[in-house]
Amino acid sequence: MTERKLSFAVFGSASKALESIRINEMLGYLAQHEADIYLEQGFFHALENKLQEDLKIAGVFEGVNFDVDYVISLGGDGTFLKAASKVGPKQIPIIGVNMGRLGFLANVVPDEARSILDDVFAGDVEIEERAVMQLEALGEPLEGCPYALNDIAILKRDNAAMISIKATVNGEYLTTYLADGLVISTPTGSTAYSLSVGGPIIVPQSDIFSMTPVAPHSLNIRPIVISDNSEITLEVESRSHNFLAAVDGRSEKLREGVTLKIRKASHKVRIVKRKEQHFFSTLREKLMWGADARKF
After folding, report:
1. Is domain 5-128+267-285 in CATH 3.40.50.10330, yes or no?
2. What is the per-residue pLDDT for 1?
3. Residues acting as catalytic residues
4. Does domain 131-262 bear CATH number 2.60.200.30?
5. Does residue 65 have a known ligand-binding role?
6. Sign of the CA dihedral 113, 119, 122, 126?
7. In what helix (H) or strand (E) does residue 181 lie, and over which residues does it extend?
8. 74 versus 1: which is more confidently predicted?
9. Is 150 annotated as a binding residue?
10. pTM above 0.85, yes or no
11. What residue segments make up the domains of the chain, in order of their start?
């Protein structure tokens, strides 16, 4: 199959610039294939300072100012989520190279990067689409990106008392959560924060969201799953008169009285997938699913 000339936008964390030699080898491999390489500005400066040499790239970009064939995330899942938030509705496929720890989203280990890039240049890759949710705060504009690939968490601030969250689904009253917070998760995010607070693991492409309270006052309130075509409305009360809304970990303070709307976004995140990768094998590998602890 004829190799195509492609362009790549590369995201990475400043801390991963410490692995600059391996990263520079990867950039060199892209250059050998005559690819146009664009580095995110912060990552470019960190890498340049570490290498102390000129990088062979086509340019540097800031924010969402890029238009390429593929995005590469060099880091852990946090870096991947940052890249996904910048890609937004652009629908550019993302290659997640795992230089972090667990790596559910960044699923390509560095030693496999050349192999998957070969497939990309040959036009022979699998791309998996993942649902995204969107947060809207009625009457108060959000400062950050409103789209979440993993989850949206409504949380109390610092040492404040628990908050009250009145939840309505498609106009029908569900319950009022008295808790430290509430995590609304996509299937992708079900193995992240949601799992740590007792939420269910959801297979990708299940077309559902989960709602899981954080440290609820009542043991009668359990996680619930709903159709991802639902619209969730939340009204929050707090003794401190404000609370936090975290969209894929990007937190901002909102005032009491703001009505929140959460729904499925009109776009999806497209992830380049290793052909031999399957969700259940990832569970067994990453979470030691079904492993006998007596053997360790």
Report:
1. yes
2. 47
3. 77
4. yes
5. no
6. negative
7. strand 181-185
8. 74
9. yes
10. yes
11. 5-128+267-285, 131-262
